[in-house]
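Dear colleagues,

As part of the handover before I leave the project, I'm documenting each prediction I ran so the next person doesn't have to rerun anything. This entry is a single chain, and its sequence is reproduced below.
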Amino acid sequence: MLPWIELATARVPGDGAQLRLMRRGDEFSIMAGSIELMNSRLAGSEEALATLSFARLAAARAPAILVGGLGMGFTLRALLAAAPPEARILVAELVPEVVAWARGPLAALHAGSLDDRRVSIEIGDVLAAMAARPGACDAILLDVDNGPDGLSRDANDRLYAPAGLATARAALRPGGILAVWAAAADAGFTRRLGAAGFAVDEVPTRARKGKGARHMIWLATRR
């Protein structure tokens, strides 16, 4: 068995966790402390976040999509595969080093997606990106932590609290989609989405295209 090698580290702004970029052969992992946030062999549910969301935007000729969290680029690449040439996709990534890794050791995984003319990158908190775009988004896709309980950064809890959900709703056009990825189901979060003015579908997904760990995606439509 090949050993894991630490390639780089980064500190999540504020009082967040230290992120570690690890490699073992051709496998990559991003970890928050000792907890794995993502792995290059486990792309299924992150891709599903994009494909399930975009299926509900098929009628939009030029959808405006905000993605919270770049990660290893699985969600972004799946969006680009589905989106029309007129789409506009903004990725809000809090940790600058994650973008640097995408152009460095993880460049093969990202496959040039950051250079697609439909894509723009904003370094900063996705909550601020939402607040700055009232009524401008057809969809908001959030994969910034392990789910509604912030792991890499305590401040991420704000996204999933009533005030954060109100900000997301205000950034969406009527009928817009808020899609949220999580490592596990959370009935309390489902209730908060409903109370915030969303019609909610819970979609269990697998980490590896039909197998592996069970993850959860919420598809919440602005009422």
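The helical segments are 44-55, 74-82, 96-103, 107-110, 126-131, 157-160, 162-171, 187-195. Residues 44-55 form the longest helix (12 residues).

All the best with the project,
I.
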